[in-house]
Amino acid sequence: MEYVSPEGLRLDGRRPMEMRQIRGEIGAVAKADGSAVFEMGNTKVIAAVYGPREVQNRSQQMNDQALVRCEYSMANFSTGDRMRKPKGDRRSTEISLVIRQTMEACIMTHLMPRSQIDIFVQVLQADGGTRSACINAATLALADAGIPMRDLVTSCSSGYLNSTALLDLNYVEDSAGGPDVTVGFLPKLDKVTLLQMDAKLPLDIFENVMQLAIEGCKAVANYIRELLLENTKQLEYRRGV
Amino acid sequence: MLHSKSFVKKTRGGKVTKVVREHYLRDDIYCGASICKVCDPSVARLSASASTILILDTNVVLNQIDLLENPAIDDVVLLSIVLEEVKNKNLSVYNRVRSICSNSLRKFFVFSNEHHKDTYVKEMDGESKNDRNDRAIRVATQWYQTHLGGATRVLLLTNDRENKRKANEEGISAETVETYVKSLGRPDLLDLLVQNASGDVGMEDVEDLRPSKRKILYTEHKPMSEITSGLHRGIYHQGKLRVNRYNPFEAYVGSESIGDEIIIYGRTNMNRAFDGDIVAVELLPQDQWHEEKSLSIADEEDEEEEGVHLVPGSADDAPRTTGQLQGSSGETAPVSFRPSGRVVGIIKRNWHSYCGSLEPMPKPAGSGGIAHALFVSKDRRIPKIRIQTRQLENLLDKRIVVAVDSWDRLSRYPSGHYIRTIGEIGDRDTETEVVLIENDINSRPFSSQVLACLPPLPWSVSPEDLTNPIRQDLRHLRVFSVDPPGCKDIDDALHCTSLPNGNFEVGVHIADVTNFVQPGTPLDEEATQRGTSVYLVERRIDMLPKPLTEDICSLRADVERLAFSVIWEMTPEAEIISTRYTKSVIKSCAAMSYIEAQAKMDDSRLMDPLTTDLRNMNTLAKIMRLRRIERGAITLASAEVKFQIDTETHDPLDIGMYQIREANQMVEEFMLAANVSVSEKILKHFPLCSLLRRHPIPTREMLQPLLLTAAAVGLNLDVSSSKALADSLDRAVGDDPYFNKLIRILATRCMTQAVYFCSGDLSPPEYHHYGLATPIYTHFTSPIRRYADVIVHRLLAASLGIYKLPVIFQDRPQLTSIADNLNYRHRNAQMASRASVELHTLIYFRKRPTDTEARIVKIRSNGFIVFLPKFGIEGPVYLTQRGENGGGEWFVDEQQQKIKKMDGSLSYSVLQAVRIHLEVVEPQPNRPKLHLSLL
Asked: Are residues B157 and B51 in the same domain?
């Protein structure tokens, strides 16, 4: 199938190096310590963060650092056809793990020993790139909760179809069967904390594709930073400082 | 610049699901006109001087693609919505349009109207998809009109009346294609127009419109829904229709659902299906399975007679034999009761363009008027095609290309339109061109991208190549090559040295083509497509560009060349002790022809090292050959002929059978051994993705004609295994020295050809190569002229750990499709060379009517088929006039394979020698053909 037309437009009208429209909103769940909604095109996820708080299961408590837990789930209504998936299926478990590891790498866990941080992410609407959207939402929520972090970790995916590197794949492009590279990135430190791909790709092409994903991460980071600044200004204003 | 819009798109599948997709509308899509001040001029494609910019409707693109391919039509804007619709309706037209768009000489611009913020239209309530798309086309046209602000005329071409009316109402100038083409004042373009079947355009053949003449000739095709349900319930069977090359009124549909071929007799039952169409077939009641034969011939007025042609090389080229011998009398011939059926619907058309000429007809009185003519394709499987033309007098003696548009159930022939002229009938270049087109052979020069992949000339082995650890320096060896005289693409060389322990080291060195053809480059892709070099009588169409073929890769004498070597240690009894494979650098010391090599070996005075090598090799080869025959390899014979061509005029000067010498067999033997060794090696390393070659065991049914002939001359052939057949062929010696060869030729043509396949697709017992009697086989020794060998070279290099296996080998479906393409190209190349030989035979005999000896190979009801060994051709000799069909005077003895005169005064039996007079006759002007008559 033709995923990029000879005119250089993708199926949804984007050019290969363009992301979908992104939008973030801080404070979606009042009860949580921090929360956010993050949208990448039609993909929409909500994240809620509780903590740092007392460790629930004493046996898991660590004396030198905080325990980070993450739970990923997809709402039943998130895909077009309603599917009742059992909780804790392999895909969700894997994504939970991926998100936990990515977030753990940027949270300064050593500052909060003997405590626990819970991150809940749920996909409200799925249209490809849920992994990236979840990480971005979690970052926003963690920042909202005021948890100390080394940097804002952001994520974006990229792929390679019709001999073209594509940024931010949507569902149609994702299910084309080509490679899908998801990158988690610390923009200030210029470090990659997550790199996933489940296909084969020649090394030189892979580097280009990964570089493209990193550029995407940087763009997301800029947006998130602006969003947080704006949010802080709002808070300041409300407090009347 | 980003503007997002989500919309409900469509439902799909059995279930109804709502699909929501994003749709971005942009403001950075440019109009492509160079006169435009606002848009980015770097992407402009339309010429600045264009007086009119054309915007096309979907149906115009779909139907008039031949017109669009003509360079007279230019400055065209194609809307992305139109392209999308074209793609959904007809992929081949889409690909053709796309190739016009990417051609830098044509001024076609693709405007992505669906993503432009001003030209995107939303579906309105109650508006059908078609109406919405038509509206989108009009909106885009209007946008162009206002955008360019009257600097040029923007013209919408549509043949849809409603669309045209609406366009005019909205102030858009719109015209039908016909009126536009007429306004150009080019009558030749009008011929390219497709006559619209739906009647939107008022041009119809008058003769057929009279109600009295409008007789329904064919049954209606069933609607798709009925076909699908019928296929589901097992009433209909789906398959690809293949028309018998030698009898266009007989076709076969290979059906998986009943596991057998369904035969379809006659045009009525074929019901307008073409060769290659995917059709739905209904089986006829069993009692009608047999009688069809006589019926089919009867309802055709234009029964064609069989011409003189080359002797078929294998069963694939030969006429199908079912029921061939049954003729006048309802006799006892063992015609298997195969299911016959009729076509009820066509699932997918395989229409493309066809080469041929117009049926001779009187020239029209006045010129310039519209004339109807019947087009006869060179390919006999294609029915005649009715075309309209305004240049009849020009076309009558030309070879032309014609496309099919439609086939109405009221008309006997499909209607089509003229595309282009190739040249005069009978002209050698024209006819060669026809041969190439017919066999889908790309004879265009290589593109600049492909040529850019070549190493710079003059090329020589570089020091890096010599120091490369993967490459062994074998320049000290006495390597030589033996090839046909005048061979420029030498891809194999040999060496043979005696070792101190009495054994021999024998090496086969093959040109290292993969060193220059890297996977994924344009050069590689082009070679994949071409698949093989094509050898015609007077020219060669290369798979790889000439510098590679004739210089860089060619293992010429006294130059250093890169090679891929297979080196064995052999005992004097030709037992292989060890095998070693390596990339190497060699320096050939002699490039001999077969004749030279043979002369060296035969001259007992010569004792130089090279001759000794040759003799040693020959001794080994003889043992290997004997052992191979022992295993059951069949010595096949072919009736290959060789022309001597005049260097000035390229006309054939002499013609004769190709002579096979011991030297040929020697080289062949080592090539076979190399191929077998390599196939073992690659299969061991890559059991799932090797490219091998197999030769299926012929079924008893296929060998039937051979057995019948043999029985008639009192010969008993055992066909239970290849070994048994080979032995009985050896025993088949008559008083006649040519008898054995004749029987072998007959045996060869009963077998199918060997095919390439991907080892993962079949199970190991099926890998068997029947003719060579080896369990596995592949092609390794001619990478310059066969792409299969290039693939095998890569596999071998990967199995040695020299290079990584290219990604493509991990994709089995793709490998299978490459193998299929190779088989297709290989077959076409063979057909083309045969056709080329046939053409030259005709040219040769044009000035030289000849008397010669011939053999009867088959008895017909009204004569017999003779084979002319000297020229490698065969053709019919009629004892009675056509039409009488042997009635009365002659009768056929089926058992004895004899045709006898009623009074018993004369009889001819199969394999009998007769004298034949051979001449070229022209029963119709410009249609020369060979005619055989009994002396």
From this structure: yes
Cβ-based neighbour number of residue B413 at 10 Å: 18
B852 and B831 in one domain? no
End residue of a domain, out of B835, B858, B886? B835
Token output for B528: 């994949």
Q: B80 and A172: CB-CB below 8 Å? A: no
Residue B156 maps to a domain = yes
B418 and B525 in a common domain: no
Distances B150 to A220, B55, B77, B172, B184 between C-alpha atoms, Å: 45, 15, 16, 12, 21
Q: What is the CATH number of the domain that holds B179?
A: 3.40.50.1010
| Residue ranges with strand state E in B311-435 | 341-348, 353-358, 371-377, 385-389, 398-406, 415-424
Which of A1, A4, A12 should we substitute to test contact with B (largest number of B Cβ atoms within 10 Å)? Answer: A12
CATH number of the domain bearing residue B928: 2.40.50.140
- Look at chain B and report how many structural domains it folds into: 4
The shortest C-alpha distance from A221 to chain B (Å) reads 19
User: pLDDT tens, B238-279?
Assistant: 888 888 776 778 888 877 777 677 888 888 888 888 888 888
> Does B169 share its domain with B50?
yes
Phi and psi, residue B360, nearest 5°: -55, 135
Between B904 and A22, name the one with better pLDDT: A22
Q: In this structure, is residue B814 part of a structural domain?
A: yes
The shortest C-alpha distance from B237 to chain A (Å) reads 29
Under the banding of pLDDT at 50, 70 and 90, the label for residue A226 is very high
| pLDDT tens digits, B553-604 | 888 888 889 999 999 999 988 888 999 999 999 998 888 888 888 888 888 8
Angle between helices B700-712 and B739-748 (to 10 degrees): 160
Residue A9 to residue B115, Cβ atoms within 8 A? yes
Instruction: Tell me how many residue pairs between chain A and chain B have CB atoms under 8 A apart.
Output: 52
Q: Is residue B1 part of a domain?
A: no
Q: Is residue B454 part of a domain?
A: yes
- Are A155 and A131 in contact by the 8 Å Cβ rule? The answer is yes
Please indicate whether, in this complex, the C-beta atoms of A7 and B112 are within 8 angstroms of each other: yes
* Mutation to test the A interface, candidates B5, B18, B21, most A Cβ within 10 Å: B21
> What angle, rounded to 10 degrees, do the helices at B787-799 and B812-846 form?
150
Q: Which residue, of B373, B394, B425, is where some domain finishes?
A: B425
**Structure tokens belonging to residue B322:** 């079912």
Q: Determine the Cα–Cα distance for residues B344 and B914; give it in Å rounded to an integer.
A: 48
Q: Are B588 and B609 found together in one domain?
A: yes
Nearest CA in chain B to A171: B21
CA angle B125, B129, B133 (to 5 degrees): 105
Structural domain boundaries, residue B658: 448-696+752-835
Let me know: does B516 contact B499? Beta carbons within 8 Å: no
CA distances from B84 to B53, B443, B902 (A): 21, 31, 69
Residues in chain A whose Cβ is within 8 Å of chain B: 5-7, 9, 11-14, 18, 20-21, 41-42, 80-81, 127, 170, 172, 200, 202
- Smallest Cβ–Cβ distance between B115 and the set A13, A41, A42 belongs to A13
CB contact under 8 A, B80 and A80: no
Go through the domains of chain A in sequence order and give each one's CATH number. 22-239 (3.30.230.70)
Contact B471/B465 with Cβ under 8 angstroms? yes
Query: Do B827 and B854 have their domain in common?
Result: no
| Same domain? B798 vs B853 | no
Asked if pLDDT for residue B4 goes beyond 60, the answer is: no
Please answer whether residues B911 and B714 qualify as being in contact, where contact means their C-beta atoms are separated by less than 8 angstroms. Answer: no
Compare CB distances from B18 to A13, A18, A80 and report the shortest one's residue: A80
Same domain for B457 and B541, yes or no, is yes
CA-based nearest residue in chain B for residue A125 = B20
